[in-house]
Amino acid sequence: MKEIFRNMWRRKMRTILTVFGIAIGIFAFTVMGSMSLKINKMISGGKRYITGQITIMPKGSSADTYGMMGGASFLALDTLNKIAEVDGVKAVTGGVSLALKEVDLNDPESQSMSFGMPATIEGMDLNSAFENRNWNTIDMKEGHMITQDDPDTAITIGYTIAGDNNLKTGDTFQIRGTDFQVVGIADQTLTGPDQYVFMGITKARELLVEATPFLKSLKERADEAGSLSEAALAALPEATRKEITEAKAFKMEDVNQMAAVSWEDGQDSDVVANRIKDQFKDEAVVLSPKMLGEQIDKASAIFNTMILGSALIALIVGGFSIINTMIMSISERTKEIGIKKALGASRKAIAYEYTLEAGVIGLIGGCIGMGFGVLLASILNSKTSAEIFMLSLNFLGGVVAFSFVLGIIAGIIPAIKASRMKAVDAIREL
């Protein structure tokens, strides 16, 4: 091993440039790979949850208008009650979701972009018997998950929410102008729930209505209409009566941006989803677990390609650098190889020496590249509210091993060339 380092040091500049080339590739591998690991972790957690339920969306909703008036509608309570009666359905629950902080167009900080899952309010129907098949509980760091026995202003917050806002159980947390009491902090999941604030659906609906001008106006009109007596209503013009009658039909219980359905034991989720779809095709969009799982797999494949792409960069840049260095080294050390063979060194010993030297070059470059990759990922993680890089020890160990193997593979051809040299031909150059 000492001789290997001595030979590397004899050609310092060439070795440094080769190591630098490998470090660039491994740096890219480390950064892109750790980002992909985090995203895949989130996707995996999302898939586990979403495939444990049948998801129902209002007809006309889309990814661009979800939860916003002017493009999306809501699932009425009556519709959810009818879905609950479909054969094979065990339970149905409505849901409300909105951003934790209201976007202020005059405040650049409130409009800042962030990687990963944004901080989100998740309204839960605590009286529903619904349970997700794959994820019906979350481990707690402190306190407990909110229940129907807690007051309306009780919330359970995700791990990242607690850290970003320096919160602990028992603290008061103001959300959109309303004070809530933290009764629990969920343990870290490295997925969506880390950025969730769980609250009862009643309070979540109130926050959503307050944040949506159309809904707020509709509710105010409904409250005014509810205070009118039948006699007073009858005395109004027909057009006004019609508007008030429509406003009176508004109910907070009908504000459901989505619904989740669980199925009975022994039932096929896709079959149950198709039954719901057939009966409510004009009112709702039904997404089966299988369909959503396939869509998530397609998204995951994109990020896995990122890992393969960064690995390919490391392979091309580092591999050719090592091959070039080792071939040049062998041509300069022909005399040395001839003397070693004349003294009895075998082909195997010569090949082993040069292959190991290439492996060591790859290992050094890999360690340097990985080190800078970890440093950059750590700095960026500390600068963002949500970690965007997942620095797994197994992954980092794999990166180092990959760089060593890369060096070994790149050094095989030059090493074989060196081992096949004839001692007589090599010594003639003395």
What's the main sheet like?
10 strands, mixed
Total number of distinct structural domains: 2
Principal-axes geometry comes out as elongated
Reading the helices and strands in chain order gives HHEHEEEEHEEEHHHHEHEHHHHH
Distance between the termini: 26 Å
- Supply Rg: 32 Å
Strand content: 5-15%
Secondary-structure content class:
alpha+beta
**Average pLDDT level:** 82
Number of H- or I-type helical stretches:
14
Give a verbal description of the structure.
With 430 residues, the protein is of the alpha+beta class. The chain has 2 domains: 173 residues, no CATH class; 223 residues, no CATH class. Helices cover 55% and strands 13% of the residues. The protein contains 14 helices and 10 strands. Strands 1, 2, 3, 4, 5, 6, 7, 8, 9 and 10 form a 10-stranded mixed beta sheet that branches. A hairpin with a 2-residue loop joins strand 6 and strand 7. Helix 2 packs antiparallel against helix 10, helix 2 crosses helix 13 and helix 12 runs antiparallel to helix 13. The radius of gyration is 32 Å and the shape is elongated.
Tags for this model:
430 residues; alpha+beta; 2 domains; 14 helices; elongated
Structure described in brief:
The protein is α+β, with helices and mostly antiparallel strands and about 425 residues long. The protein contains 14 helices and ten strands.
Show the helix and strand layout.
Layout: H1 2-10, H2 12-50, E1 54-58, H3 77-83, E2 89-99, E3 120-124, E4 140-143, E5 154-157, H4 159-164, E6 172-175, E7 178-186, E8 196-200, H5 201-211, H6 213-226, H7 230-234, H8 238-248, E9 258-263, H9 269-279, E10 284-287, H10 289-332, H11 334-342, H12 347-383, H13 393-419, H14 423-427
